[in-house]
Design a protein that fits this description.
heterodimer, A: 4 helices, 2 strands, B: mainly beta, 4-stranded antiparallel sheet
Chain lengths: 125, 930
């Protein structure tokens, strides 16, 4: 019974990874433009993994027994890892959309012009 | 986040730079001015001999011939005679023959005939010498031609001559040359003869009047004689009047002390002499003769005497049989200044006298008053207690029986306003003094200044403090609520119907209603409202100038204080910008920061810079152009030139850093020997040249203009034709960067401050040249409050009488040459370089208007970031508001408030109506069984 439950748990844990290629294709297809559709998809992409990680105990509660507790840890770690992969996909997407402040221009507003120490004035004769 | 938005804005920008149809006649204003009319060259005349309707024609002090509709004061047509307005001292002549449909002007050495109705040029003739007089021949020799009357012109200079020009074609019919020696003075034509008045200088330095009479048919000399005895005339200035094209022209002169008036009827040798009595013990300052111009009117004339405090007049009749003049009657002495005008009706002559508060018409035959009107209010803006004095007048009247039934008087006042009075009521006023603005400045009215200050406080506090300040400000503003509520219906209606109630200065939260203060050539300060310039806010005399005196004022403003500087470093006066009241106290010249300050001046063709701190004063550097070179002009970077972003974001989100130095100046020099022009970008602290370029084969007669702003400069010149290229106008744009490597801040790297004395770094400059279809006579650049909005280069095109606003995007030197732009460059909004820039018709700020003789364009930021206020002056006044990046922070006129309100209302109604229906249906579905 425990092995069966463990097998089921592994299935659950790897499910997000199986969705990854589909998600990746979906993200690629929506393009890098800022539109309501692509923004919503990106939002879902972030929301899914984070929610899944937060509910991790609930997800595996009914499969967890006293016997497979040690094995379950591995399963949970795999589950978190898979969700992290999905998050990484989301971050890659956000970067592609130009929403990550990774370049010089993103910080340009915080750079200031150099102050000249001297001032010259033109006096019309 | 930032970049795609930026790219999106960029793409938007490129399509939206234009004048919008719904803004065209709303945000801009234009005064089509003529300049102050001159007494001798202003008259009523019927452009169509068969109709009674007449126009007022004038040749103004600014060299503009024009016709003004006396009904509403609009300009029917106008022609600029001298393209170079400032250097002209010429008075010019304007004549209209009786019953003619052309008017003839003489200016410089050009005689030109214009169609009186529409101002088309009929012909023009160059007399090869400065014109001394132009007259129209009113011959009565039996064979009067029905066509155009001939013109006689007297020209001076090296070979003085009288020419008779054909009235229809301008062809020279005959020419009579004078021997050199005598100075030609004036011309007078009677119906049978042409008289030339020459001034003969005697050995003792006095002047004798010599009259040469010519046969009008063939130009041969018929007679010659000399008037006036020795030692009477010291200079030509005391000759009061020659001529009038009347039946018997006269010449009148006086002595330097204005004690004796001498009159001679030209053609006779007798000189009548009249003693001028002094009234009130004041010496006579000015004598003027007013006589009718028509050949068939009565030969009566009026002599007007003016003292400092009063004026009076004598009327003389000419007795033809005895060829003498007789004093007919006198008009009483009235205190204050006054002016007279002559009008004719058939053969009768009428004189109209205008004083500060009265208009009186008398017939030339007797002293009975035919009409008298009291002038109470001219409706003009002037300083309190300032006497508005009539300078000169022309009038047109109609007489019924023994009284004047209607009179129209166009009077030029001492304020520089030209006013038309119908009887005694002002019909229109033209602020002609504004045609001669010497200096102008923007000022912020105190209301706006306070508001601006409050906004500044909010931007500089921390978040909580700013919020509390705002709440406090809004609470304070609640006290305006009652007045706001009472004006609400009016605002609502005007906003609804789209009528242009732009709001008064008090409720101007956008900062459109700035005050433009102008110093005019007649010594006055006049203030206009930049938001609605249809009225003059205030006007006051700043200095007392003689008629011949000119001044070079300098105006500057600090918030709501105007500083008027007369000449260089001379007396300084301060005024309140809101109401023009003079203020006590003189502000500091410069609020210099600590550290080294340098001030530089262009003097005697050398640019020289000196230290400002007293401790170690002395010359820092000077820039002397090379031999044969002369400095054309110098354009410093504007003192107030905010830049929002210190770098340019590239398509791949890297940054090119701008070379920003507040101490830059662009200097243009010309070399007349090699016809070349040089342009230098100078660092004005050290005097070092950061960038220079030289262009050979430049037409130095054509205008050369330049501008420097932010980190870029632009200049334009006209290149002569050469083997390689044809003659054409060029516009060069250069942009300076700290480094051409993206993400690199150049030699100074991350230093927060710098001194070019200690560690100078040179900019990397990208330059691109464009061919433009028109020569640019003056450049300016739009200014906004924080410099976020993209910029427009404003260029005055003198030849097409227009101002264009060229978006900087079109001029960007980084436009890729000889290849299509890459994807990254497309993201930036760069398009492929094309050598020719055609001025898009949408760029013309003046759209349908003709802006004549613009000499300078000024820009000033409004309170909202999107908008820059533009004011152009010269001959015409033109102003507008520009939003180079579209009005992103204000609702445009195209926003349909009605539609929005209607949608909200419809939704509200729908909600309230539908809600009970749905409720009932839901209840019913629960209770009904089927």
């Amino acid at each position: 019974m425990d092995t069966l439950k463990l097998k089921k748990a592994w299935e659950l844990a790897l499910a997000p990874a199986k969705q990854l290629p589909m998600n990746a294709i979906g993200m690629y297809m929506t393009g890098n433009s800022l539109q309501i559709f692509s923004i919503m998809m990106v939002f879902m992409l972030f929301k899914g993994p984070i929610q899944a990680v937060l509910n991790i105990q609930g997800t595996f509660a009914r499969l967890e027994t006293e016997g497979n507790k040690s094995n379950m840890l591995m399963v949970k770690a795999a589950f978190v890892g898979c969700n992290c992969l999905a998050l990484a996909l989301g971050i890659w997407k956000v970067n592609g959309m130009g929403l990550l402040p990774t370049t010089r221009s993103d910080w340009l507003a915080w750079e200031t012009a150099r102050e000249p120490l001297e001032r010259a004035y033109f006096v019309p004769s | 986040m930032r970049f795609p938005l930026f790219a999106a804005v960029c793409i938007l920008l490129r399509t939206t730079v234009a004048v919008f149809a719904d803004e065209a006649w709303n945000v801009d204003y234009h005064y089509a001015l003529l300049g102050e009319p001159q007494e001798e060259t202003t008259f009523f005349h019927q452009p169509n001999p068969t109709s009674k309707a007449s126009l007022i024609y004038t040749l103004s002090k600014r060299g503009v011939v024009g016709a003004v509709n006396p009904r509403d004061g609009s300009v029917v047509w106008r022609q600029l005679l001298s393209p170079n307005l400032t250097s002209s001292t010429d008075r010019g002549f304007l004549r209209a023959g009786e019953g003619q449909d052309t008017i003839v002007s003489g200016y410089g050495s050009q005689v030109a005939a214009w169609s009186a109705a529409d101002g088309r040029l009929a012909w023009t003739v160059d007399t090869h010498g400065p014109l001394k007089d132009v007259e129209i021949l009113e011959l009565s020799d039996g064979k009067i031609e029905s066509g155009a009357k001939d013109v006689v012109a007297l020209s001076g200079g090296g070979s003085p001559a009288v020419q008779r020009l054909d009235g229809a074609s301008g062809a020279v019919k005959w020419q009579h040359k004078f021997q050199e020696g005598d100075e030609v003075y004036q011309l007078s034509a009677s119906t049978t003869e042409v008289f030339a008045i020459l001034l003969h200088k005697t050995v003792l330095g006095y002047i004798k009047i010599r009259v040469v009479s010519l046969d009008p048919v063939n130009g041969r000399k018929t007679d010659e004689y000399t008037l006036s005895s020795e030692k009477e005339l010291a200079s030509a200035e005391t000759i009061i009047s020659v001529g009038a094209n009347s039946a018997s022209p006269i010449v009148a002169w006086t002595d330097a002390a204005h004690s004796v008036l001498k009159i001679n009827i030209i053609g006779t040798k007798t000189v009548s002499s009249y003693n001028i009595e002094k009234q009130d013990g004041q010496p006579v300052e000015k004598i003027r003769i007013h006589a009718p111009y028509h050949a068939n009117s009565l030969s009566h004339f009026l002599v007007n005497y003016q003292t400092a405090t009063s004026h009076w007049a004598d009327i003389y009749h000419i007795d033809h049989t005895r060829s003498i003049t007789q004093l007919a009657y006198s008009l009483p002495n009235i205190a204050g200044q006054g002016s007279f005008s002559t009008s004719t009706s058939d053969a009768n002559v009428y004189f109209t006298r205008i004083t500060q508060d009265e208009l009186i018409t008398v017939s030339s035959a007797s002293h009975g008053v035919l009409g008298r009107w009291t002038i109470d209010n001219l409706g003009l803006v002037s300083a309190p207690h300032e006497a508005i004095v009539p300078t000169h007048t022309v009038s047109e009247l109609s007489v019924k029986g023994d009284s004047v039934s209607a009179i129209r008087t166009a009077v030029l006042l001492s304020t520089g306003d030209w006013v038309l009075l119908r009887d005694s009521k002002p019909v229109w006023a033209r602020p002609e003094a504004l045609a001669d603005i010497r200096s102008a400045t923007f000022a912020t009215p105190s209301v706006l200044e306070d508001f601006q200050h409050k906004l500044d406080v909010e931007t500089h506090r921390n978040f909580v403090g700013a919020y509390l300040h705002r709440v406090k400000r809004h609470l304070e503003e609640l006290k305006h609520l009652p007045s706001y509520m009472s004006s609400m219906p009016q605002r609502f209606i005007s906003g609804f119907l789209g009528t242009t109630d732009e709001g008064a200065m008090a409720s101007d939260s956008f900062g459109f209603h700035k005050v433009i203060v102008c110093a005019t050539g007649n010594g006055r300060l006049m203030a206009l409202d930049a938001g609605s310039a249809s009225r003059v806010l205030w006007s006051r005399r700043a200095v007392d100038l003689d008629s011949s005196e000119s001044w070079q004022p300098g105006l500057s403003s600090r918030a709501d204080v105007i500083v008027l500087e007369r000449g260089s470093g001379k007396s300084r006066q301060t005024f309140n910008a809101t109401n023009g009241d003079p203020l006590p106290g003189i502000p500091d010249t410069h609020d210099l920061q600590s550290g080294l300050g340098v001030q530089y001046t262009l003097r005697d063709g050398v640019l020289e810079a000196t230290r400002t701190d007293k401790a170690n004063a002395g010359s820092v550097w000077h820039f002397t152009p090379m031999a044969d070179e002369r400095i054309l002009h110098l354009v410093p970077r504007p003192v107030n030139d905010p830049v929002a972003s210190i770098g340019k974001v590239l398509g791949d989100r890297r940054v090119l850093y701008k070379y920003l130095d507040s101490n830059l100046a662009l200097l243009a020099t010309a070399n007349d020997a090699s016809t070349s022009a040089q342009f230098y970008v100078l660092d004005t602290i050290t005097g070092s040249i950061l960038h220079s370029s030289a262009h050979s084969g430049v037409d130095l007669q054509a205008p050369i203009s330049s501008i420097l702003s932010e980190n870029w400069f632009a200049y334009s010149y006209t290149a002569e034709a050469s083997d390689a290229s044809t003659k054409g106008h060029h516009l060069v744009v250069g942009e300076m960067f700290e480094s051409l490597v993206p993400n690199d801040r150049g030699g100074l790297n991350a230093a927060t401050n710098f001194s070019t004395v200690q560690s100078g770094t040179d900019p990397f400059t990208l330059v691109q040249t464009y061919q433009i279809p028109e020569a640019i006579s003056k450049m300016a650049v739009t200014q906004t409050r924080q410099g976020i909005t993209s910029r427009q280069l404003l260029a005055v095109l003198a030849d097409v009488e227009a101002i264009v606003g060229i978006p900087y995007n079109a001029l960007d030197p980084r436009r890729p040459v000889n290849r299509a732009p890459t994807k990254d460059e497309q993201m930036e909004g760069l398009v492929q370089y094309e050598p020719v820039i055609e001025f898009d018709p949408k760029w013309f700020l003046n759209h349908q208007r003709e802006v004549l003789g613009i000499e300078n364009v000024m820009t000033n930021p409004a309170l909202i970031e999107s908008t820059s206020i533009v004011f152009a002056y010269g001959l015409d006044i033109f102003g507008t508001r520009l939003s180079p990046s579209f009005s992103f922070d204000i609702l445009g006129k195209d926003f349909n408030k009605f539609q929005m309100l209607a949608t909200v209302a419809a939704l509200a109604v729908a909600t309230f109506v539908v809600a009970p229906l749905v409720m009932r249906k839901q209840v019913n579905t629960r209770w009904q069984f089927t």
